[in-house]
Design a protein that fits this description.
The complex is a heterodimer of chains A (402) and B (478). Chain A has 402 residues and is of the alpha/beta class. Chain A has 16 helices and nine strands. In chain A, β1 and β2 form a beta hairpin. In chain A, α12 packs parallel to α14. Chain A is elongated and about 90 Å long. Chain B has 478 residues and is mostly helical. The longest helix of chain B is centred in the middle third of the chain and has 37 residues. Chain B starts with 5 loop residues before the first helix and ends in a 13-residue tail after the last helix. The chains are: A alpha/beta (402), B mainly alpha (478).
């Protein structure tokens, strides 16, 4: 009977290994792994250099009043996927691009509140939509518009904390705006109760008893390990960056992560309904204050990368609906007497929309901010906001007179 | 459990370990049968869905028993019956929908079971194969989890030789090391390389179909042209690497299915290196008998080469049709069969013009080989458009660029492939020329440990830490 071919590899394969190989081969394996780990880590640290120390020195993080910049502080940050970015705060601790105080005569002032995305995290101030919207809007309505940005570097939601909410509203009103613009992202809503332990917020799981404990443990353990590795290993970060530059891989990877991007499902989970209840109460608090002052308030949802990609490509799996969260926010905002402007459909026309975000970090890049600015300005000027209709109408008249 | 996943590899290694607890053939067969049944159970939880597959296997066994007991006269009828039942179960689109079973059922592995059944029936009619095959051995051969899903197509004689051997083939440390290295290599191919190629393909497809600037769409079309053959190779050969290694750890040698297919300088050579067990099977049971039958009917010597060309067309048309049940696969078969026939005619024509010696000299020329290699690769990539697309998408793809642009894309694919594949061949030859007394350094166990560790680490990071999903095994669907 034939064994295994003409070159008699069987005979060669049957020979016992030399004794030294029992030590040598595993050692070669270990050395290879160590060299590979160290080599890729060193190379990745060179390419994806990060320096984030100083921005933290510029922030005041008080759980009772939220996160704010230190007055007149200037810091620089280098995130792995970005260039160096400067954050300059005014004497009120805002990255507003202007001093806090009364607005100039004849200027239409918008005060914007939100978290890291409207803050302009990872981009220079002049590239952020906070800086671009006034120019875009001024062009649209023919009137000088300024936008005072009160957004904060970290999640600033804490919609469940009356003190934080009151403080934030006081500051908004103090800026004497013509319009309040609340920018929310899906992450803001998910972290609606930022500051509370996760289990209090996410306690409404369907799982019971031991299953619930196990799910929490495994999910948290996985998330912790992943976060630790992302934070500590730049090689893994680089790998993720490379993979997530691809629209298809990013989407596949994002959609298979349980609980993440739950807001994109057609049927929202109980957790997400709870988060929206908190937003409802927050919108109610704004309405109470804004109505007294006669200031309209506008809410806009800025999509995350997954949501924007679904809308941009027009493709999403069954059971998903990237517009669903926006519709719910519209319903809440309108019920509370505010105006919801919908920029989501505008993302359909943006080519390669996933490239408008940093692949791993997830914040919009300069291109993304520019697109968001265009869409917000267009929606604000479209007549959806009562306070701007007259301004817009007036401007048209003025232009015609000229 | 996904084929080529961590779970599958882990399962296979545990089965191999259990199988080696005793050298007894009964023990090894019991372990293989139990493992195969567990594997089936993990693929689908409702036993009802297995009924059509079980029925098909039962039909195969009944036909086998009939042939083993009597003469070979009913052979043709049993073969036809098996083919018809197979076509019916696969729901080929040219059959009326009304005759199909409409409740969902399990067809994974049916195509491979089809080849195994046919081979048993045909071989049972051969004069030198009169060993009766019992129901246990038959079931073990059919359900063997290492070949169930996507082959390789093993002949019963080869399976029985190793599985039922009184003295199983040796399994020393060197063999174990080689198989573990092969598993890592296969796992890397399926879960990392194929994933990356699929990523390029998916993004390129979106770019071609979207309103992008012309240079972006041209580049994307070029990527589409070249990346799918690479993806399919990584996906399929990676899986085959894993199952061959697992089977070897269970002391069974499975036939090789790939032999560096993109080194082939012609379509004829390519199909001797790609899905080898399928093309060998079809050559044995379709090409050779058909050619013999035609030569008996048309004894003209001058016609013989053209009969061969015709038989090539039929054989490789069937390869295309076997892959799927839709008209896209019929077209894929026409292109594959047509390509093979034209290649054969080209060979015949050149040999006639240059003489045999002249043709042999030309075929050995490095530049001719390089262009042939590139042309074969580009042609294969072109035919595969009908393999992974439906008509709607194919139409959209062709409409996305002008005919001149597409011709440019395929010419670029041809020349690019010629250049890259030849450079790879030269590099490989240069690297393999670095030798010690035991052979090339790159194939030494020390080098294998180096790249198995590296590939294993990368695969581990991507699959476990990043949980990046890889596409399923394409051939699982056939």
């Amino acid at each position: 009977m034939m064994r295994s071919g003409a070159c008699s590899p069987a005979t060669e394969e049957e020979r016992p290994l030399p004794r030294r190989d029992w030590i040598l081969l595993p050692a070669i394996g270990v050395v290879t792994i160590c060299v590979l780990l160290c080599g890729t880590e060193i190379a990745a640290r060179k390419v994806f250099f990060r320096y984030a120390g100083s921005i933290l020195d510029c922030l005041s993080m008080d759980p009772e009043t939220g996160v704010r910049g230190l007055p007149d502080a200037t810091c620089r940050e280098k995130a792995p996927e970005t260039q160096w970015v400067e954050y300059k705060f005014n004497r009120c601790g805002d990255r507003a691009g202007m001093e806090c105080g009364p607005k100039a005569e004849g200027v239409f002032r918008i005060v914007m509140s939100g978290s890291s995305t409207p803050f302009g995290m990872r981009v220079e101030r002049d590239q952020s939509f906070a800086a671009l919207v006034p120019d875009e809007l001024s062009q649209e309505i023919g009137r000088r518009v300024e936008l005072y940005n009160q957004s904060s570097y970290f999640y600033a939601t804490s919609w469940d904390n009356p003190r934080v909410v009151a403080e934030r509203l006081d500051r908004m009103m103090a800026a004497r705006p013509n319009l309040i613009l609340i920018v929310v992202t899906p992450l803001d809503i998910e972290r609606a109760a930022f500051g509370l332990p996760n289990r209090l917020v996410f306690g409404a799981s369907h799982a019971k008893g031991w299953k619930q404990v196990r799910a929490m443990l495994s999910e948290e353990a996985r998330a912790n390990i992943e976060q630790q590795l992302l934070d500590k290993s730049r090689a893994i970060f680089a790998l993720r960056h490379f993979l997530y530059e691809s629209e298809s891989e990013f989407m596949k990877s994002s959609l298979m992560r349980e609980n993440e991007d739950d807001f994109l499902k057609s049927q929202l989970s109980d957790q997400w309904l709870q988060h929206l209840q908190l937003f409802d109460s927050y919108a109610g608090a704004i309405e109470a204050r804004a109505k007294n002052a006669g200031i309209p308030f506008v809410v806009v949802l800025v999509p995350d990368r997954v949501q924007a990609t679904m809308i941009g490509t027009g493709v999403w799996p069954a059971g998903y609906d990237p517009y669903s969260l926006g519709e719910r926010l519209r319903s809440i905002t309108t019920r509370q007497g505010g105006t919801y402007i919908d920029i989501l459909p505008g993302f359909r026309g943006i080519p390669d929309v996933w490239q408008c975000y940093f692949p791993v970090d997830g914040h919009p890049n300069a291109e993304g901010h520019a697109a968001i600015a265009r869409l917000i300005a267009k929606e604000l000027a479209s007549g959806a906001v009562p306070g701007l209709i007259s301004a817009s109408g007036q401007s048209v008249t003025l232009r015609q007179e000229r | 459990m996904d084929a080529a996943s961590f779970q599958f590899v882990g399962f296979g290694l545990v089965v191999a370990l259990l199988s080696n607890l005793s050298r007894s053939r009964v023990w090894r067969s019991v372990v293989l049968m139990a493992a195969s049944l567990v594997f089936l159970g993990m693929l689908a939880h409702n036993p009802i869905v297995f009924l059509p597959l079980a029925g098909f296997m039962l039909l195969g066994y009944a036909a086998l028993v009939l042939l083993q007991r009597g003469s070979s006269r009913p052979l043709a009828w049993t073969v036809v019956a098996v083919i018809l039942v197979y076509i019916w179960l696969k729901k080929y689109v040219f059959l009326p929908q009304a005759i199909f079973i409409h409740s969902p059922y399990f067809t994974i592995g049916l195509s491979y079971a089809f080849f195994r059944v046919l081979q048993l029936l045909i071989e049972s009619g051969a004069e030198d194969e009169k060993q009766p095959i019992g129901p246990g051995a038959y079931l073990l051969f059919m359900l063997n989890f290492t070949t169930l899903i996507s082959g390789p197509i093993q002949r019963y004689g080869e399976f029985a030789r190793d599985q039922f051997a009184e003295q199983p083939i040796p399994l020393g440390a060197r063999v174990i090391g080689l198989q573990l290295e092969r598993i890592v290599r296969g796992f890397f191919k399926v879960n990392v390389l194929a994933m990356l190629f699929d990523m390029v393909r998916t993004d390129a497809l979106a770019q071609v179909l979207e309103p992008q600037p012309a240079p972006v769409r041209l580049m994307a079309a070029l990527k589409l042209a070249v990346v799918y053959p690479l993806f399919l190779y990584a996906n399929f050969s990676g899986y085959i690497d894993i199952v061959i290694a697992l089977a070897r750890l269970m002391r069974v040698r499975l036939p090789e299915n790939f032999d560096r297919p993109f080194a082939a300088c012609s379509a004829l050579d390519f199909w001797n290196r790609w899905h080898m067990t399928l093309s060998t099977w079809l050559k044995s049971y379709v090409y050779n008998p058909l050619l013999l039958a035609l030569m008996r009917r048309i004894p003209s010597l001058s016609m013989q080469p053209f009969l061969g060309v015709f038989c090539f067309f039929v054989t490789f048309f069937l390869i295309g049709v076997w892959h799927g049940r839709t008209t896209e696969f019929i077209f894929f078969g026409l292109l594959t069969g047509g390509g093979m026939s034209i290649n054969k005619l080209w060979q015949l024509g050149l040999a006639r013009v240059l003489g045999r010696k002249g043709y042999r000299s030309l075929a050995a020329n490095g530049v001719y080989k390089a262009f042939g290699r590139g042309l074969n690769f580009a042609w294969f990539g072109f035919t595969l458009l009908w393999f992974w697309n439906d008509w709607k998408q194919i139409h959209a793809l062709f409409a996305a660029l002008s005919p001149a642009q597409w011709i440019g894309v395929w010419l670029a694919a041809w020349l690019g492939a010629a250049l890259m594949l030849t450079a790879w061949e030269l590099l490989r030859a240069a690297l393999l020329s670095i030798r010690t007394s035991e052979g090339p350094v790159l194939t030494s166990r020390y080098a294998r440990v180096v790249y198995a560790s590296a590939l294993g680490l990368v695969a581990l990071v991507i699959t476990v830490l990043l949980q990046q999903p890889a596409p399923g095994i394409v051939y699982k669907a056939f």
